[in-house]
Amino acid sequence: MNAGLITVSAVLALLALARWALRRGLTPEAQVPEDDPAALGLIGVQTLWLDAPRGRKLFAWYAAAPGAVRAPAVVLMHGWGGHAGHLLQAAVALQRAGFAVLLPEARNHGRSDRDDHSSLPRFAEDLRCALDWLARRPEVDAARLAALGHSVGGAAVLLLAAQGFDGLRAVVSVSSFAHPEQVMRRWLAARHVPYWPLGWLVNRYVESVIGRRFAEIAPEATLPRAQCPVLLVHGRSDSTVPLDDAQQLFARRGSARVQLLIVEGTHEKFDDEPALFDAVQAFLQAHLTDASTGSCAGAHRHVPSNPVRCPTLDSPSPSLQ
Question: Per CATH, the architecture of 34-178+218-288 is what?
Answer without folding.
Answer: 3-Layer(aba) Sandwich (3.40)
